[in-house]
Design goal:
Elements (H helix, E strand, L loop, with lengths): L1 H10 L3 E6 L11 E6 L11 H13 L1 H7 L21 H9 L12
Antiparallel strand pairs: 1-2
Length: 111
């Protein structure tokens, strides 16, 4: 139900509306509208910037390999990088996204 999805997303901003495309799973002939959480990794500011940069880069630049492992990672593309994100990003990730031409939202930059 669209109203329920909107209600949940408004209350819990780390969720976002997501259609599971038809055929993603066996016996699923139609799209299914649901909510989703971002595929993210957590770390803290003490981790080396170059390490986090390389991890972030690998996630996006080896996307096809991830999808072969699990179809849910098909959504993990740069266009969706900030959906459902509510906590600041590591400087290494910010560096990668900036290099790729993305504008990191202010609320995702540590103060």
């Amino acid at each position: 139900e669209e109203d329920k999805v909107k209600e949940i997303v408004a209350k819990y901003p780390w969720y976002f509306p997501y259609p599971i495309p038809a055929g993603t799973y066996s016996n699923q002939p139609e799209d299914v509208q649901t909510i989703a959480l971002a595929n993210i990794l957590f770390t803290d500011a003490r981790q080396d910037e170059e390490l986090i940069y390389m991890l972030t880069k690998a996630i996006y630049e080896y996307h096809d390999d991830l999808v072969m492992g699990h179809k849910a990672t098909a959504y993990t593309v740069l266009d969706n990088a900030f959906k459902g994100m509510t906590i600041p990003l590591h400087a290494g990730s910010i560096r990668y996204f900036t290099e790729k031409g993305l504008t990191v939202p202010e609320n995702l930059i540590a103060k």
